Amino acid sequence: MAKWRNLAMCRTYPLKAAGLTAGMTFLLNFHGIGEAARPYESGEKPYWIDTDRFAAILDSVQASDQPVGITFDDGNASDYMIAAPALRERGCKAMFFVLAGKLDEPGYLTTQQVRELDADPLFTIGSHGMLHLPWPDCSVEELEQEVGSAQTILSQICDRPIAEVGLPFGRYDGRVLRKLRACGFSAIYSSDGCERLTARDPIPRFSVRSDTPIASLEAMIFQEASFTQRAKCELRALIKSMV
Q1: How would you classify residue 45: left for phi > 0, otherwise alpha for psi between -120 and 50, otherwise beta?
Q2: Phi/psi of residue 190, nearest 5 degrees
């Protein structure tokens, strides 16, 4: 977690490790950059953005005076091949949430690439589970595999405890959150969109799509969410956490 304590040139710094509250930090979440080197999952393709759009978004982040965090879900090969070089060029930090059960499969990160990313002072590896399942729908046994087993595999690869997790599909309920806390996860990230009023888990992120207008992103990056927007996000998260 110490990797996040020093601010990067583009002012990207997630999260609890930097001692920030949800109302002070905006988080952009990406999935794939360019074209997937594997078949797309159902509904996945809109979350892949081209390299020029990705570069333009990073440049907008770099120009912002607001603290903006950058994360990636799924552990696609483009994290290593495309995203990491672009981030290094700008001095941007990022967290990569990896699917442990997809490592070394075509189109996904290799075990060695995960080690290299985690060894880079700009980057940190977190868990995204095993096989990209919606965790509220999992049985007790499936949830143990998705949460506990994936955490163990990634901890062994990175040779350190994995304490951050990105929720697959952004979905959660009270049972999922209790399981994650029981496994020692200190930071849990959803896809709930805008900032909230409090820093309680899960921490909201905005998932960038190929059809997300750059102007809309810049409005979110450069302007803090209103009290009403944050209150609505807070209420939605509270309701889901209580189910």
Answers
A1: alpha
A2: -105, -165
Mean pLDDT by 10 residues, the chain (243 residues): 34 36 68 96 96 94 84 98 97 96 98 98 97 97 98 98 96 94 94 69 90 87 70 67 67
CA distance 165 to 190: 9
Question: How many CB atoms are located within 10 Å of the residue 39 CB?
Answer: 8
Q: What is the rounded CA–CA span in Å between residue 53 and residue 72?
A: 15
Q: Any alpha helices (H) in 14-83, and if so which ranges?
A: 51-63, 77-78
Cβ atoms of 204 and 195 closer than 8 Å: yes
Contact assessment for residue 198 and residue 22, using Cβ atoms and an 8 Å cutoff: yes
Please check whether residue 31 is in contact with residue 207, taking contact to mean a CB–CB distance below 8 angstroms. Answer: yes
Q: What count of other Cβ atoms lies within 10 Å of the Cβ of residue 38?
A: 14
What's the token pair of residue 179?
């399981």
Phi and psi torsions of 28, nearest 5°? -100, 130
Tokens of 10: 């583009």
Q: Which of 243, 230, 211, 195 is nearest to 25 (CA)?
A: 195
What is d(CA 227, CA 144) in angstroms, rounded to the nearest whole number?
37
Answer yes or no: are the C-beta atoms of 146 and 138 closer than 8 Å.
Answer: yes
